[in-house]
Design a protein that fits this description.
Length: 250
């Protein structure tokens, strides 16, 4: 591969990902103009995180190093959707809350919280991870499911927006904290593993001169620390809003 800024270009062009990115950018350009500068910055920063994870050379490295794959999912599942959720305009969230029918049940906040860890465990299970990394259809399904779940989770927890559901501040904090212990446990298990759990990266040609165990350790740390820090930031944001909204003592 060439050095330099080549990785900012699409590695494996997905017409669907490019179309969705263009539509979302055009929509926010029209609808998000009235947002405060900080919210606009959050949206575009999160948008950039998710685009980089899906449609740049980072995607190439994610197929050749487990820790880069974990970084890719931190961007798709944690940081990117977190920032996008903070930047969404309130009218769009109000319409989302008013959605009726099956989304009221399929996108319930606690179900999205359950899937937050459920999808993580499912796609990281070695018997599932191997075919997902070798079959482009499963690979894209994995990334899209992770990204969509992350967006639904963070919109529900940071902005109290879900079809037919308005979780309280305490419930939203509980949701963010409830998914943390399992992420820490899985990250710690990866870090402490002494065997190669994901030989697919050796099969594809592991990069950066890492051993299989060293690669897993870095991946475990990325799941363990940056992922959890995003949840800590979310808890602090929601708790801060609750404190500011509470009546001042007499």
């Amino acid at each position: 591969m060439q050095a330099g800024w080549w990785w900012l270009l699409p590695y494996d062009i997905s017409p669907t990902a490019l179309a969705v990115a263009l539509l979302c950018a055009a929509w926010y350009w029209r609808r998000g103009g009235g947002q405060a500068p900080g919210r606009r910055l959050c949206f575009w920063s999160g948008f950039a995180c998710m685009y980089v994870a899906l449609q740049t050379g980072l995607d190439y490295y994610a197929e050749h190093a487990f820790f880069v794959h974990r970084l890719q999912h931190v961007l798709l599942h944690h940081l990117g959707p977190f920032l996008v959720a903070l930047g969404l305009p309130e009218p769009a969230l109000a319409r989302w809350r008013a959605v009726a029918g099956w989304p009221r049940y399929a996108f319930h906040p606690w179900l999205t919280a359950l899937l937050f860890n459920g999808l993580l465990l499912f796609w990281l299970a070695p018997p599932v991870h191997l075919p997902a990394m070798l079959d482009w259809r499963l690979y894209r399904l994995m990334n899209w499911s992770i990204a969509l779940n992350g967006l639904l989770f963070w919109v529900a927890t940071l902005r109290a927006a879900a079809p037919g559901a308005m979780p309280s501040g305490a419930q939203r904090i509980a949701m963010m904290l409830a998914v943390v212990p399992l992420q820490i446990a899985v990250g710690a298990l990866m870090f402490l593993a002494s065997t190669d759990l994901y030989p697919v990266y050796s099969l594809c040609g592991r990069m950066f001169g890492l051993t299989a165990v060293g690669d897993q350790q870095l991946g475990g740390l990325l799941l363990w620390i940056p992922g959890v820090l995003v949840h800590v930031a979310g808890v602090l944001l929601v708790a801060g809003r609750l404190l500011r909204a509470s009546p001042a003592p007499a």
